[in-house]
Amino acid sequence: MNDLVIHQTGRRDAEPLTMRTLLICHECAHLDRDGLARWLASFSDLVGIIVLRETKQRMWRRIKREVNRVGILRFPDVLAFRFYYRLFLSSRDRRWQEEKLAELCRAYPLLGDVPVLYTHSPNAPEAEAFIRERGPDIMIARCKTLLRESIFSLPAHGTFVMHPGICPEYRNAHGCFWAMANGELDKVGMTLLRIDRGVDTGPVYGYYYYQGDAAMDSHIVIQHRVVFDHLKELEQKLVDIYAGSAIPLDTAGRTSSTWGQPWLTKYWHWKLRIRGTKNASNYAHVSRRG
After folding, report:
1. Is residue 16 reached through a cis peptide bond, with omega within 30 degrees of 0 on the bond before it?
2. Angle value at C-alpha 192, between 257 and 200, nearest 5 degrees
3. How many domains does the chain divide into?
4. N or C terminus of the chain: which is more exposed, having fewer CB within 10 Å?
5. For residues 143 and 173, is the Cβ–Cβ distance under 8 A?
6. Among residues 54, 58, 59, 48, which one has the least CA distance to residue 24?
7. 288 found inside a domain
8. What is the pLDDT of residues 77-130, one digit of tens each?
9. pLDDT tens by residue, 207-234
10. CB neighbours of 116 closer than 8 A, spacing ≥ 6?
């Protein structure tokens, strides 16, 4: 199940590389595995990638957690959305992701060798050994699994997530979807936060908002755009974090809520609201740096 290979990625040779970074992502997440990795290597020394291979056991554990969250009567609503997405939305989203990946590959050309560890969990002993050996200053976790403290505390400057949702209001899963479904358009975005022991409760270093047409984009495309539309800003923020000049934002006193998988009924509530709006541009947001 576990193997180590050398992966080629992008890098700008003209600039001295001092910040060491490491990426954790899923095997099927090509935008992260191939696109985000090239971006990281363009301004830092990308010292390793941990690629997670999904197991049936982990999938069933997530299903059980979602049933416990929403209840057995609501769970068919979750399943209905997944069926609807695969039937009507997934092919268009794949094309969007392929085009975005091609764009990233043009922007960050292939160059350099980076060790890659394939494993089933970021908390596995071999993952911990790999991180210790590679010695990153900053680690980016693009995965569905909560990291143990023995893992996220290894990088000298912390482990960070690009959470699809504005925290603390939209913690856990699919925050962009739920903000849209709830009509909170000012909270459709991504939170850059440092991992702590909680679920998306760590220090917040920035908000990066959706700028697009929500009448056309799916929740998956929106989740990607709040990251990939802001790479220049994210690069600067990570450099500032490494330099020690980035200050966490004050989130005290704000509502904190956790969310789960999308429901088909909430999806139609979101889309029907947009269709009933004469000017769909009301659902587009201008990027603001946090």
Report:
1. no
2. 30
3. 1
4. N
5. no
6. 48
7. no
8. 999 999 999 999 999 999 999 999 999 999 998 667 899 999 999 999 999 999
9. 999 999 888 999 999 999 999 999 999 9
10. 4, 5, 6, 7, 48, 49, 50, 51
